[in-house]
Amino acid sequence: FVCFFFFVFLFWIIDKSRRDAAEEVDILRRYSHHPNIVKLYAVYEDNINVYLIEEICKGGELLSKIMMLKHFSEREAAAVMLRLANAISYLHSNQVVHRDLKPSNIMYASKTADPDSIRIIDFGFAKQLRAENGLLMTPCYTAQFVAPEILRKQGYDMNCDVWSLGVLLFTMLSGETPFATSENDSPQKILKRVGEGKYSLNGQAWINISEQAKDLVRHLLHADPSKRLSAKQILIHPWIVHLNSLPTIRLNFFNDPFKVMVSFS
Predict the structure, then answer these.
(1) How, if at all, do strands 49-55 and 40-45 pair?
(2) Locate the Protein kinase domain: which residues (predicted)?
């Protein structure tokens, strides 16, 4: 696909010979009115391409914006997670799975860091669940954010999005992804760690993080999808409910911004 910026709109061109955009368009038409999902304004097509006109997100990608701020606290991370969980809970209540939640697909619509301007974008992998058992089989993922059940190739459901939210939360709090321990890690090494569900909440980045935040991370990054919280349950977790009382001190990972940017390059 190709995209262009036109003032207040984003213009996507999707080559029909490369990808069928029908489901993506249908999902955006039905659900993009949610405040934290990118807005779809219009769709056009010809014999070669599909053209999507979407809301432009001027604030940029989640991680890039956080690094530009030079100050990001646990309270601000919870405010972002609240909006993301709200949007994913809404999609899941309508049997829609996004399947590609990662920092580059989480953007700010405004140039400020207002969490209300958070938008989930790129529904190219999104799927409406229709199977009787509610399971999907096609492996669609980005290595650092893929849920272990997808790698097992035995079917997966909307809980894969919850896992990705867990990786995003881990990332916002520590500046690293849980399963990439070195910039030289190969995709194979990362996927092996994902499959084993092994990660650590120790280290310098986690010293000042609250136990409630760590508890939520553990409940999202559970290798058994049936034991994860649902997106709806995230909204009533104490860390989210009491976000206004969370610490506002600068998170430790800002002490090594180069390491953070390498992790997501």
Answers:
(1) antiparallel
(2) 1-240
Q: Are residues 45 and 141 in the same domain?
A: no
CATH of residue 135's domain is: 1.10.510.10
On whether residue 2 sits in a domain, the answer given is no
* Whole-number Å distance between alpha carbons of 4 and 132: 39
pTM of the model: 0.90
Enumerate residues 6+ apart whose C-beta is below 8 A from 38: 28, 32, 54, 55, 57, 107, 109, 119, 120, 121
Which of 49, 65, 86, 122 is an active site residue?
A: 122
Least confident of 32-46, 55-69, 113-127, 130-144: 130-144
Q: Would you state the pLDDT for residue 176? A: 84
Q: How confident is the model at residue 237 (pLDDT cuts 50, 70, 90)?
A: very high
Domain ranges, residue 155: 59-263
Q: Active site includes 185?
A: no
Contact of 1 with 15, CB cutoff 8 Å: yes
The C-alpha angle with vertex 56 and arms to 96 and 118, in degrees rounded to 5, equals: 55
